[in-house]
Structure formats: C-alpha cells, structure tokens
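This week, look over our next protein:
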Amino acid sequence: MKYHLLILISFFTSILYSQTKQNIDSISYYNKLANSNLKTKKYDKAIFFTKKSIDFCETNHKSEGLANQTFKLGKIYYNQQKYEEALKNFHKSVSLFDNFKPTCTKALALHYIGVTNTAKGNHKTADIYYKKAHTLLKRLNIIDSAEILNYQKAMAFKTNNDLKAATKTFQEIIKKPDNSSVLKTKIDSYYQLGLIETQLKQNDSAIIYYDNALELNSKTTDLIQKSKIVLAISQYYKENRNFDLAYSYLDEHYQIENYILKLKNAKIDLNEFERFKKNQSLNNTLKRESEEKIQLKTYRYSKLVSILAIALISILSLLSLALYKNNIIRNQNNLLLKEKNKELILAKNKAEKASKARSEFLSTVSHELRTPLNAINGITHLLLEDRPKKKQLKYLESLKFSGNYLTTFINEILEINKIDSTKVEVEHISFNLKELLFNIQGSLKELATANKNYFNLEIDKEIPDSLIGDPTKVSQIILNLINNALKFTQNGNVNVIAKLFDKSEENATIYFEIVDTGIGIPEDKLQTVFESFSQGSVEVNRKYGGTGLGLTIVKKLIELLGGEIKLKSEVGKGSTFTFKLDFSINNEPMEKAEEVKSYNDKQLKHKSILLIEDNKINQMITRKMLENKAIYCEIIDNGEDAVELLKVKHFDMILMDVHLPGINGTTATKQIREYDKTTPIIALTAISLDENKDMLLAFGMNDVITKPFVPDEFYSTIAKFFD
C-alpha cells in the first residue's frame, strides 16, 4: 500500500513540475513577478525579473516584447530617480521601436525621455522629445484626455525644484473642463499646487488649492487620494498653529485609512482562511509540545527562583517604604505646580486675547477708514484736474497732502498688524542690491536738498551683483532709516554704507550702516524708540511730525529677515543704525526686468468698463475718473446682477469691489470665470489683515487696485490690459 502511494505522489509531482517549467520561462510570468515586487516597493527584485524578461525576449527573438520590456525597465529606474540608467533604457527602447509600425508605447518612451531630461534640468533637450511624442500621438490619433503626460511633466519640473514651471503646468491642467477622464489628474494637480504653495509659504493660496482638491474628490470614490489630501490639510493647519482643525482633519485621515484597511481585509479568499485554520491547528500542536518542554525546564529551576523571590520581596519592601514617603512629597509639589500652571495659562490666554483684540481693532479701523479716505483723495484729484481757482488751489493741495499723510499712516498700522499676526510672507527672488540702493538714493535726493544735507552712498564692490532675498522688505527698511536720517538732520551729513561682511559659495552676509549728524536721541529713549507710536519727545513730534511707526516697522522687518538692529546715538551729534542681513547668492545670470510702460490716453479711449461697486460716492468718483479718459462706464451695485448681466453683455474690463452686499466680489468672480475666462477682472479693495493679493488672484482676478486710489497707478493698471 505504501509503495503504491509513493508512485502516485511521484506521478502528481512530475505533472506539477512539468507545468511549472512551461509557465515560469515567459514574458507574462516575469512581468507578474516584477509587478508584485513593485507593489511592495522591492525595486531591486523588480529590476531583476524585468531583466530576466528582457533576456527571454532576446533569446527567443521577440523583438516587440524586447522593446516593451526595455521601456518598462527605464520606467522603474526613473521612479527610483536613477536618471542616467533610465535614459539609457528609454533611448534603447525607442531604437528598438523604430523597426516596427509606430505604437502608443513608443510615444510614451519619447515622452519619458523628455520628462527625465526635465528632472535633470535639461529643458531644451526635453522640449525636443516632448514635441516628438506629441507629433507621434497626433499621428496615431490618440488624445491624452486624462492629461497624464502633462501631469508627469509638471512632476518632473517639481523634482528639479523648478517650482515656477511646475506651477504653470499644473494650472494648465486644472483649467481643463471637468469630465470623468481628467477628474483624477485635476485633483492630483490641485493637491500638488497646495504642496508647492505650502513650500513657498503662500498659506492662503495653499488652502484654496487643497479645498478645491477635496471638493473634486467628493465626486469620486477614490479613498486613497482623499486620505492624502486630508492629511496635507491637517499638516497645513498644524504649521499655522490651528491645532483644533489640524486634529479634526488628522482624525478624518485615520478613519479613512482604517476603512481602506477593512475593505482590503474583507477580500481575503475563503480558501486562504481554511489554510490559515489548518496552519493554526498545526501551530497549536507544536506550541503544546514546546510548552511541555518549557514546563520541564521551569520545574528544575523553581526552587532557586523561590529563594531569589523571597530575597527580592524583602528588598522591594524597603524600597516601597522609601518611595511611599517620596511620593507623598512629590504629590504635594505637583499640586502646587498645577495651580501655578493654571494661573499662568489664564494669564497667557488673557494676554493673547488682548493682543488679538488690539490687532483686530486696529485692522478694522484702518480698513474701514480706506473707503471714506478714497472719497477724499478721489474728489481732491477730480477738483485739481478741473482747473480750480488760485485761491482754491492752495486749499486743495493741503487737502491732498493730508489725505496722502493719512493713507501712509493707515498703511503703516496695517503693516505692523500683519507682521504681529504672522500674515507677512518673506519672498525669495533675485535682485541687484547695488541698483536698489542707487534707486533709493535717487528718490530721496529732493528731501536731502530741501534740508541742505550732504547725502553719501558707499557700496562695497565685492557685494555680488545678484542676491536672492526679499527686495521689497529691504527697500522698506533702508527707505525708513534714510528718510528719518534726512528728516532729523539739517545742514549736515547722512552716510549710507553697505559692506560685504562674510561670503561663501552660496551665501553672503551684508553689513548696513546709516549714519547721520542730526539731532540725536536721548539715552533714556534708545530702547523705547522702536515701540509703536513712540518718538524722541513731544517737542520732536510737534516740530518734525511723523507717525512714530517707521522704526517699529524697521525693527520688526529686520527680525523677520533674521537680523538684529543696533542703535548708537548722542543728543546734538547724531545717530548710527547698524544691522546685518543674510542672502543667498544667485550664480545664474539675472533676467533683465521688463520696463514698466507708461500709459497714454489713446489706450483707454472708447473702452467699455463695468464697475461693480455698492458705495454711491465711490461710484461717482470712479465713473468720473474713467469718463475723464473717454471711457464708457456702466455701474452695477451687487454681485448677483453683475453675474447675470455679463452672460448677455460684453465689456472690455470689469472693476470688481471685493466687499459687496449679497455675494462678495470673490464669489462673483468665481461664477463669472465659469463662462468667461478672458475678460480682465481687477479687484478694488481696501486690503485688510486677512486679505492679500495672491489670495484674490487665486479666485480668477487678473490684478488688484488698492483703495484709496493713486490716480496714475489706477490708470496704469487699467492700461496694461489694453495693449
């Protein structure tokens, strides 16, 4: 009986072996093994089996299979960021495909050569292969309706840290009309834009992109995609210190992940479960045998353990007594600490609420003042243009000066509030520091001449021509300091010095010094002079004027850029302000900034503009300013009517007030952009603490004009859309 059983087993084994041998040496077999290893991220094994597949194709003269498998190997190397190996295989694949009738895979191989070169920064080479791939797809009459190729290109730009090009390509994808084929790619593009904006510290834009991604995802059943978006939103709120929302989204992320895991577990095959039960039974038998052996060993050492246990219990009893006494003392101290912590937390919360209330109050006041101030400045401008009498001209010039002074004051309050509430974002762009300083000197020569001051600028020649930093904030700092020096100095000297303090291949530290021979600052005021609304004395304020906010802004901006300002001063002898700032060095040649073209009246003549504004005075002023340039102006006072009117009537431009009754300007713009992508829309806003230009542009607006209007800037902004 045993002999027959052995024969039967041998027979079945030989059949199974022969079947395995037939199946294991084929393209599909190696593909299956490679794909299973790719799913588990075992890339070395995936490469091994793909190479085995290539060897099989070469041995069996399967030329088309060889081209396909070589392309697959290139993709694996690309995903591992081994770009040289990837390019080698992609080029080989294209060469093999040249022997056959063109296929979609050949077009993909050409596209991947482009993507790999983009990731390496070889943009010219990449463009050549993108065009070849596009031409072949067009020839094959294949349309990339899902925008997969564009998405891969954008990801390659992002890998090369070319965030500008990546953003542009992702934005091209999200502008595509919604349909089932492109929906997933649009969601991923919104998600990637959110990540890029987060990286660039553009927080308001980032959350808009994340919200759009989440909104589109609700139209699908892709839980994995939703999970990563929700996690990104959680991290965004964590970085912005909104821990309640961060925790809420993180909890939602974990709920989705648990649900996905349950779905996977529910798909376990019944046969697998039966095998599991059999294995469990066998494991239990082995476990029992093992336990019996362990019990036998345990019995041998039980007496020794008992003796050691008695000794240990005695020692622990003594230790427990000592710990008990220490625990009583520690509990008493902990109670005292808890009470003190509660008091500190209450005091901290009160201080934070007071600071927040102050910032919100100042922001609201400065924001609300802009609308009537726009009326004052606008009417003054219109009256000055209307050929006033000589007697009236003096009063109108005084009114214009007062309006401009009040505008500056409000802007400075808003600037301080933005810095205090961490709403200010630091730019990292290329600029020429030497040119910036020369331009500042030129703009302040008139003030220097008025006070009969010698204004000297010393710039170290060793300072690199192209630095990376925030030129706007550097200008604010230096303008404020020089303006103060010139204002408080008469018949004296003002020296501005910029020296290279330290330099490496990638970074440079610049030392700045502003020295004047003016009235000086008393020793007891040296610390308080940087506080808001603070000046040297009441007499100084009466004689020289000013808001007392300039040095506050300077100190906060320098600290924001990572520096520290120092002050030395002596009454009657002058003051010296010094600080150092760190910059990155841009080793690539700087692109020449395009000169801003001044507008002319012919550009504006006979254009038609729709003004959406609810304030009657602002309606009157804006219409008059437009009509003075021969522009036709039509007015709507709410967003709903404007949206309906624009469906049936065309205008050359739309001026959109952000704060409107009913739906606000941003919502109205979003609705207009659903059916009109081209008409320029310019926001009119008294930008507040919670608004910024990038946030408004994200809703589809083309530019922003801030209230109160500066007439020349108002006309220039409009004119640049009428070239």
